[in-house]
Amino acid sequence: MSLKYCTVEACFSVPMLQLTTGNLPFLIGFAVKALHWGNSAVAFLSLTPFLCLFCQPPITRWLQTRYSLRAIIALGFVVNAVPWLLLALFPWVDSGRDALFSVIVLVSTMANSVCGVAWSAGVSDLVPLNIRGKYFGRRNVVFGAWSLVVTLTAGQLADAYNNSLVVFGGIFAAASLARFCGLFYFLRMKFPDSVTRRQPWEQVPQTLAATLQDRNFVRLIVFTGFFGMFLYAGNPFYSVFVLTQLHRSLGDLTLLTTLGTLGGLISLTTWGPLSDRHGNKPVLITTALVWLLTATVSWAFSGPSRYLHLYLNYFITGFMVSGFELCQFAVMIKMVPSSHKTHYISIYLSLTRMLWSLGPPLGAWALYKLPDQMGVWLGQPITKYHVVIVGSLLLCLVALNFLHTVREPAERPARELLQVMSNMREFNPLLGLASLAHYMFTPRGLSRLAHVSARTLRRQTNAVAQVGEELVEGGFRALKEPFESEAPKRDREP
Q1: 151 is in which domain, residue-wise?
Q2: Which residues contact 351 (CB under 8 A, 6 or more apart)?
Q3: Per residue in 105-121, pLDDT tens?
Q4: How many domains does the chain have?
């Protein structure tokens, strides 16, 4: 039941995070279209998740000595959600609107950073090691479907009302309430004692050096850090390029994002079992190569009159990135020791995100220095955005070579993974395109798709049907529960 509640919680929380995370397209689109932010401000917005993860270790450590992981997660949910309610006031705020939005993003993101570290440690104790890939793959499919629907709907609403601050305020307020619904289901989960009890002071690691003595773990940090830094030198500006250079609307951008999410949903049930059987590292290398090569070619050929291929690019990228992100999280969890798990995860996220946070300013600096246009290629202008985006992808390909130095326990050779993938219909391009065409362009396929969608929606609706009544009757009591349980423990301490 706890694993089920974990999935239901994600159906509320993850769509909210898709709308409110600084380096994701929807919030960048809001900043560009509604607040009229430029590249430097977008770079600041994009680095906030990484900057907050870099700064969170002392906060996490301080909270860990006073509260259980469960209480820290609950507190993170609340502080992450509340600031977004203030955006409903933006239509009536003129002076200081940008500063207020920056504070909202920083406070909310810092809370989510601390919450994310504690959540990773808590859930790693809950999910058995032998089914982690399969479980997280299926969980990601479920919440990814809801994220797809929510993001697409939010983008279309914003388009329909000409990016009105009133509409955006309503969207962010609804996202905040969804986060509280996720908190309700999180509090119903049953965790082991290591999550529900406050950790004694002597069990909290005191130094960074103890964590960095594991050279294999350090190599993983170096790879993840530099790969992310190069990636996010260009990634935040995909959305700016689509909106300002290709002259697409926010609705078009959310449609592209939705196709990426759809590609991820189709692939996730496959990546989990493959990573459980062959290891995470071979999946990381394979998915990264396909994703980066496809994206490099697609963005290089993009222009105002040549952009339709980006729809296919987003789909393929989403297909591969879902496997990459799943295995990147899994390999980190697999390599941290069972003792001091929270501390190791905190240090990993802090150091890697410190490097990631350098990416958006680096990309913004390059965009500032480069000329707007540097010639014409195949009838389309070569802009500074082409140079930054394609350059960041090529640097990621260079950084991928460092992954070979990381040793994963019980990993299998990559060639075995490729042999298995070559015989799976999910990885046959012709079969994949034929299946997509069958579903989208034939009456029988549409009927089947509608039937499957209705069945899935019915299952998920049954899973969350009681949320309204239970939130009204027991929501306040559930919010107080983790903190009330801490009070007697502190009273008994000398």
Answers
A1: 2-492
A2: 54, 221, 225
A3: 999 999 998 988 888 77
A4: 1
